[in-house]
Design brief:
The protein is mainly α. It is about 70% helix and about 0% strand. The radius of gyration is 18 Å and the shape is globular. This is YeeE/YedE family protein.
Length: about 150
């Protein structure tokens, strides 16, 4: 139960941060990504604020013997860069550049769009999430077929 409460709290803080920073607004994200047109550098400030906060988290994490909700730290596995990783990164970047959403901000935007149906440019969030889920299911299906 403690893990669920901590996960919920972390998700709410993350979603609030995405909302306050306007990263849930696809027009804002697309303006940030458009470095040759009407570039809006304001989201760079979000990154500038996030890097030291993440760094402090890593420093504090190294001082702990275990995480708050697990018996031990589990570092990520080191895996080589392969075709799947490159293809996935390319699809992620292309999708983000085309519509201005990635999974986290889309989920946060969905919450705002449901709470305020007239809210800004957030009407595309449900469609993006549906397309994302279809894409994930398609990749899982193809993976299962290829492993057989």
């Amino acid at each position: 139960m403690r893990r669920l409460i901590l996960a919920l709290g972390a998700g709410l803080v993350f979603g609030l941060g995405l909302t306050v920073s306007s990263m849930i607004n696809p027009a804002k994200v697309l303006a940030f990504l458009d470095v040759v047109g009407g570039w809006d550098p304001s989201l760079a400030l979000v990154m500038a604020a996030a890097v030291p906060v993440a760094g402090a988290g890593f420093v504090l994490g190294r001082r702990r013997h275990a995480p708050l909700a697990a018996p031990a730290f589990q570092p990520p596995a080191v895996r080589p860069i392969d075709g799947r990783l490159v293809a996935g990164a390319a699809l992620f970047g292309i999708g983000w550049g085309l519509v201005g959403y990635c999974p986290g901000p889309a989920l946060a935007a969905l919450g705002v769009a449901v709470a305020d149906p007239k809210g800004a440019d957030l009407a595309g969030a449900p469609l993006f999430i549906l397309a994302m889920l279809v894409g994930m299911a398609t990749v899982a299906f193809i993976d299962r077929r290829m492993r057989k």
